[in-house]
Amino acid sequence: MRGAREGRNPALSNQSAEKLLLIVETMSALDGSIRLQDLAERLGMNVSTVLRFLAPLRRRGYVEQDPETSRYFMTFKLCGLANNISSRLDLRGVARPFMRHVAAVFEESANLSVESDMSVMYIETVNGSSKAIMAMQRIGHVAPLHCTGVGKIFLLEYTLRKIDQYIAVKGLTRFTEHTITSRGRLMLELDEIRRRGYSFDNEECEEGARCVAAPIRDYTGRIVACVSVSGPASRMTDEHIQANLPSLIEAAGQISLRLDWKGKCRLSAPGVSGRLEKSGFFQKTTCIFFTLDYNSYYNI
To answer: pLDDT per residue over 218-238, tens digit each?
Structure first.
């Protein structure tokens, strides 16, 4: 009878779905198993109600009950669903709307890149105001880590040993007079990027070209991609970058939000506070950059 009533009443069905999801979310956050009574108290539900919802979760293999203690616990079946979603997630599709906005604001090319074999690979580019895409940022192009804005962000995930391995394997090749070619200077640059939360390429990879980049994190907290803006140094002046930087930072945060990054961040950067704080974006529990609280953000 209850199922029939819920089937005829969408409101009841929605309430049931919300209760089921609340049980799943609550149990997934537990360190271990839990007694039925304790679970009901946490949820603010009757024991009989919780038991009714646990039954289909057990039948479908999402919840098990310890036969000796009668305590309930989540299985790893949800991990399988998460892996299915992750394997099919089109990062370019998620990022593209935000890249279009950034490209329009900067009036320059917005780029999406990932790390591949100790190199940067550009996987998506959105042109700005009909301006030509710079050769270095064409889709499929591979660039070094040590002299690109996005590459230096990827290096933040490297251990000291892996940085030494990168230098041994790839080298710190000089491309322009501005290229970083020493380990000591590279480490100082990475410390500065950690401090401010974003990265520059100041004509280090290509003469006459500048880039500013921000990291994208997934639900594990790893940097999995970067969004950046690049253009001629004559247009990408310090004033132009600082004036439009909030749009890049917000884009990186919004993409990370959709990848379920759960970092708590504290806003602390010039030029970002007004519009983004007023929008309520920094009140979300999910990702944004420009933080001096980088011990949490960079997991150091």
So the answer is: 888 889 999 999 999 999 999
